Amino acid sequence: MAEQVRAYCNLCHVHCPIVCTVSGEMVTRIEPDHDHPAGGAMCVKGKAAADLLRAPERLRYPLRRTRPKGDPDPGWERISWDEALDTIAERLLAVRAEYGAEAVAFCKGTSSGTALSDSEPWLARLSHAFGTPNVVGTTYLCNWHRDTGNVYTLGMPLPTPDFERAGAVLLWGHNPGATSLAFARAIAAAQGRGARLVVVDPRRVGFAARADVHLQPRPGTDGALALALIHALVARDGHDVAFVRTWTNGPLLLRADTGRLLRWADLHPEEADGYTAWDTRAARPVRYDPTTGTYTAPTEALALHGEWHLRLASGEMVVVRPVFAALLAEAAACAVRVETLTGVPAERVEAAAALLAVHRPVALYFWNGLTQHTNTIQNSRAVTVFWALLGDFDRPGGNVVLPSVKLAPVEASELLPAAQAARRLGRAERPLGPPARPGQVTGYDLYRAILAGEPYAVKALVGFGGNLLYAHAAPALGREALTRLPFFAQAELFLTPTASFADIVLPAASFLERDNVWAGWPLPLAARGHVQYRPAVVPPVGEARADTWIIFELAKRLGLGDRFWDGDIAAAYAHQLAPTGLTLDTLKAAPGGVTLSLPPTRYAKYAESASENGPPHGFATPTGKVELYAVPFAEHGQPPLPRFAPPASAGRGDTAGAYPLVWTSAKLLQYCHSQHRALPSLRRAVPEPYAELHPQTAAEYGIADGAWMVVESPQGAVRVRARVTEAVLPGVVCGVHGWWQECSPLGLPGYPPFAATSANTNLLIPHDERDPISGATPSRSYRCRVRPAAVPTAGAQDHTAGRALGTRGGVGASS
């Protein structure tokens, strides 16, 4: 008899609540859980998740390579779990003993678009306990600029948009209909009650087609557009002047000679130091104390405009002006050329600024569209600064720091000594970026360590998800690195092109085949207090095991069992649940979870004080304010004010001439990154790799709609179908990354990662042109050209072309 099991999908960051119908050991149907506070909808990927259980190419048993890397036949040999884990532990311990713990790296998939969120904290704990600072991830291409990057402006990640109370929504570089169903529903509901919508997207898709104003910039020019919006907003007095004076560092004086903030000690070395502002009433400089967030003048008297000549204590004369005035100068420089720089007409910029100035408060959200460029951090800062000038931080209807139930943190970062963390790959080059906070390594830094031993050699890698050759730029370099890497183990659902280079492959369980605890859905507010235990809906296929189980078992073999509850995962879950007051048994007895009461939402918490007469909390930045001028950027030689620089490949004379088009990329509703193309219900909808181009561009290059074409960059080439559409701008080519996997039930082929018939779009992208702070590579704004191509022939596949060959009773075998 069929039964229903309440769970939540874990294929992406949304965690849609679901109800699974189970018959025997098979899931026959997956539907939204309408009784869950975050429930009521799910995407097609979640509905197709049951196909993961039936996929014939699923890894079912641990495998060991018996032939050299690069051999067309890896000679996969089935081994036991004990043999696999014992071998991995022995190799890691041997590398640590000879080269140091940093010579071992771990790798993971993104928690935004894979099921790794279940196990990501435990992998962090393992790396810290083992002693390595090196965990390879993709945050530098994903959420870092919105989350950690915003710490340099707001002192925290961008808070949650309050769509329910917003007067307007500003959606920038994010198509939630394809990647974030909870946000899509909330935005649609906001529009339904009258909220206005401004969308910034190089493509006219999703909410862009139903926006009040759609701004369509050329890829990689968002910073210029945001600065032009700042100019238009201030010109019409649409900014919140009181907020700017009181809660941003806009009044602080900036020296024209050094570009640095004027220190009070420069004027009065005998007094306590601080920063300096200008008092318009007294016509003199005044001191600002960042430790208390207070000035020696009323904030309403602080100048935001003007220029003054001041004599320093040294006798030197300097020219100074407020940070806000300097910001406006940067904005004006872009505003006068906005259409030339971005392709967006000036009147459209004015319309967007006018709408957002009037329909307040404004809720902002941005994501990947801003994050894969060589100018990513400055573009993202410009967007955040524009929104901050509206004053809608932690204001009802703006972006709000909301209460949420929390599990006990288990990452145990304290186990990794600070000196060891400082040795993380890439940290010396990007001390403000992901290698420093939150502590992730890029693919290209890993490759350099393997191939060149810089800054030291990496000798072993253990991966959990994370298809390196399709997630990071320069996959050919990655292939060389994985070929030369002395030891590599990978846990996966399928034998990906990356896993095909492993020495040992471990079969991972899907989210339907493993349990987990989760707390705090971001939307709606009622779901932020929800805690849920997700049971294993069905047993794992073959001998597949949960990533968390693999981590705990490996920890025991590495001598770290005491850090992992001696392998007792239930005890570890109980530890996580302790702050909630719930027990694991309580959750198991409550299918669908338990909603806890949260404290009432407070607003403008930055203005609160810890004591009755104490200073306000302010913002967790060096100046204690929203930093229009980022002090850490100045200290590290980076532009401290948002400044637009064109994408690195633009304006490169010969390169731009030979490759006159702009390559960008987008995500599909049906697939998460390089996953799910083996699932028939999804592959039917999008059976082949494609790229979009405008009819004008297609005609210019002789490309017919639906025809195969070659897209080339200075780095490499891919072959994809042409999709001719007016949704993209002339001169732009927009593709989708992640194509490798075959779909055998439909007879649809896979695509090799490196051959002439490859659709691996990262072949187009360089690893040495990158954002100087985050390290982002230009997957969404790089030069390219197109030409017609012949139809790719079948039979060109190899062991890395979407299926596994040369196995010995391991991958799809039933025994």
Characteristic key phrases:
815 residues; alpha/beta; 8-stranded mixed β-sheet; disordered C terminus; 17% strand; 6-stranded mixed barrel; globular
Could you walk me through the main structural features you see in this protein, from its secondary elements to its overall organization?
This protein is an alpha/beta fold and 815 residues long. The strands form 8 sheets. The chain has an 8-stranded mixed sheet with strand order 7-6-20-21-22-4-5-32, with helices on one face. The chain has a 6-stranded mixed β-barrel with strand order 26-30-27-29-28-31. Helix 3 packs across helix 19, helix 8 packs across helix 11 and helix 16 packs across helix 18. The relative contact order is 0.16. The C terminus is likely disordered.
Short description:
The protein has about 800 residues and is α/β, with parallel strands linked by helices.
Radius of gyration: 27 Å
DSSP, total strands: 32
Averaging pLDDT over every residue, what do you get? 94
Question: Quick one: biggest sheet?
Answer: 8 strands, mixed
In angstroms, what separates the terminal alpha carbons? Answer: 27 Å
Please work out how many helical segments DSSP would assign: 25
